[in-house]
Amino acid sequence: MSGVSDAELREMTQEERVNALGMTTEQLTGKSLYIEFDPDAQERFAYPWAPDVDFNKRTEVDAGELTNTEVNSRIRDLMAEGYGTIVLQNPRGKHSLAVGILSRLNLIIEGSTGYFGVGLIDGPNVRINGRVGWSCAENMMSGTVVVEKNAGSTFGAAIRGGDLVCRGSVGSRTGIDMKGGTIIVGGDTGALSGFMMQRGRMVVCGNAGKNLGDSMYDGTIYVGGEIRSLGVDAVTADLTGLDKDWLTRKLTQYGLMPDNGVGHFTKIVAGKQLWNYDNLEPNEKKLIL
Amino acid sequence: MCGIAGIIHKGRRANVGAEMTSMLQALKHRGPDSTGYAVYGDPGEGEYVMRLKIAEAEDMEIGRSIHDRLEERIVAVDSILASHGAEVKVKERVRPYALRYVLNHEGDTGDMAEHIEETEGVEILSLGNGLELIKDLGDAGSVAEAYGIGDFEGTHGIGHTRMATESDVDIKSAHPYWAFPYNDVSVVHNGQITNYWIMRREMERKGHRFMSDCDSELLAVYTAHHLANGVQLEESLRRSIDEIDGVFTYLVCTRDQLGMAKDTMAAKPLVLYESDDLIAMASEEVAIRAIFPEEIDTYDPYDEEVRVWQA
Questions:
Q1: Full domain range(s) for residue B7
Q2: Residue A221 contacts by C-beta under 8 Å, 6 or more apart in sequence?
Q3: What is the pLDDT of residues A181-202, one digit of tens each?
């Protein structure tokens, strides 16, 4: 499907949108990879204990003299008070800031964070006006995280959903073990990006380091620049119209659309020669027999 | 885990002692066992600075007899210096087990260094025209206070906070390592070298000595070997990526240079900040932020990346 307009998308049901945007087109053959997004399961996307916040209620936190634990506690307290927009000032490279936020929140971090920033989140929209250290947004489940500068290694390790964007370049092992969601890198990425990737999409507008997609089970990687080398069992695939539509939509959304379009992107998928995808587990065989 | 940090000012001097202390203290959580500095100043034309330890810190617990032994070792060192024609201009006993000498010497410093280390319990931590290497147990704050590093003026330096893994918690296993007997070369390292024993035996066959069983010392010896044979620092760093196995990021300083190398897996972190007149690097962003309150742009070097900067 190609050329879907915003107007058409607005008229569609969520399920139709999911299909139209190519969210179910991966060649999934593994037994655990058929679990699809269920648009009707609304109640699964909010935690009963998540505070009801008002995005128009805004406040600031100065992290300069606080420990990372104090910062995180302060964010939780403010959310409990209904604050839906929080600006974090002076993060100064502290580790594990804004982790474990499991509900809606507009979080703006004015500066750079250290390791494991915004990890284990499920729902917030985060903008980081600085650089992030290793393992930013690890295990992210939903929401958006936009990093305005560079990022360290293991960016988006094991993410399961949401959009994770770095406008600059990122370190090595980007999206290692990712199980869903989208990672977008405006610049370059280092070695072993997409290592053991299981699902989701990664877009690298610049160059990719060696062993890209090594041992990936599934998912898709798009690279706009040079690829130093592909990893074991990672292979190139044809860039379809659907891929181009999706890339155009996503890159435009985050202001990263290249001047020369997306036709030059290389698509990488799993060769699926490394793992025996069609073998059933013994207990599954028993069920069938 | 360990933490490493480095800073180099281009064409000017600054308080690198205080800068390094701030950076290393911010990395304390990566290694609280010991802290070390290799800072580069300017002792004066024709002068050498020698830092040495005459015992381990823990030796001071042995009993009263250790003090007599330390006095004997100092007398032995002074005697050897005199026998090599070295004029002692300054002699400071910074700690009961650590001394600092400023020397005038015109002969072969390598030969003199080897002679000094024949003295039981004595290890030269550094010898050179600019390098001063200080390392001890504890965090950066306590080591800086004990050795008066906070007001050290110089052009560049590297440092290390150590979490001991494969060797003892003592001064001889602490970083940085001086590239004995090559003047003014020092190394700090974060990682594990998996072909350490093969490489060590190769270096020992070439006549180099090791003072510890710490794999990081290999990098200092390896670098010294190359520099002594006319290999430029950048080329030595590049060769190390091919010849040394394991996961590592390490920093090397010479009299007027600071270099870095990262292994093929990029498994050990380093964050870099570069401006027109200053380059700072550390295992973690938080260390760089310790000396830059304002917002700056930093990045991670990639796998197999080698860089060298001039003071």
A1: 3-42+130-310
A2: A193, A194, A197, A201, A202, A203, A204, A208, A212, A213, A234, A267, A268, A269
A3: 999 999 999 999 999 999 999 9
